[in-house]
Amino acid sequence: MRVSRSQAAENRETVINVASRLFRERGFDGIGLKDLMKGAGLTQGAFYKQFVSKEDLAAQASRRAMESATHRWSAATAAKDEDPLGAVIAFYLSMDHRGEKMDGCPIVALGSDAARQGMDVKASFEAGIKEHLEILGRFIAETHGEDADGKAMAILATMVGALMLSRVVNDPDLARGFLDAATHQINQAAGA
C-alpha cells in the first residue's frame, strides 16, 4: 500500500523524534535500525525511503534533540522571566533533569558519542551549542550589561560537566553535590 506524501512526511518526523529520544537514552550505537523503526511504529523497510543512512538520521535526530533542549530552556525562563539565567540554571542543574535520560540534555547524553561521529552529526551539535551560548550570553548581558561570550562558554561547560558527573555516580548525595557546587560557581561567575 502506497503512503501519501503527507503521511510520509509525518512518518519521517515521528522517526526523527523517536530517534532523538532513543539515541539520548541508549547512544548512537546502542540501538539498531530495526528497534528504532519499531519504536516509531514503522517497519525497517520504511527507513531507507526516508533517510540515506543511520548517520543521516543521527544528524537530524541530534538537531531535533538540541532544538528540544532550547525549547526547554525557553519554558524554564518563561516561568521565571525576571531571572532567566537563574531559571535555566535551576532547571538544568536539578535532580529531576539528571534523571531524564530520554528528554534530558543531548550534549550530556551524546557528547562523547557525537565526538566520534561524522561531520553532519557534529554540525548539528555545534549549531545547538552555539545557540545555547548565544542565549546564555544574552542573559548575562541583559543582567550585567557586559560582553559575555567567555562567561557563557564557562557557564555552559560547567553546567554540562556537572550534569554529566552527577549522572555517572550512584550516590544521590554526591550527584546533588556536583549540581549544587556548579550552581554556586555559576552564580558567582555570572554575578562577578
TrEMBL record:
Cited Pfam families: TetR_N (PF00440)
GO function term, MF aspect, one: DNA binding
Entry keyword Cytoplasm: no
Keyword annotations of the record: DNA-binding, Transcription, Transcription regulation
Domain HTH tetR-type: 9-69
Top-rank taxon, per record: Bacteria
Portion annotated as DNA-binding: 32-51
PROSITE patterns: HTH_TETR_2
PANTHER family found in the cross-reference section: TRANSCRIPTIONAL REGULATORY PROTEIN (PTHR47506:SF7)
Protein name stated in the entry: TetR family transcription regulator protein
Organism (species): Rhizobium gallicum bv. gallicum R602sp
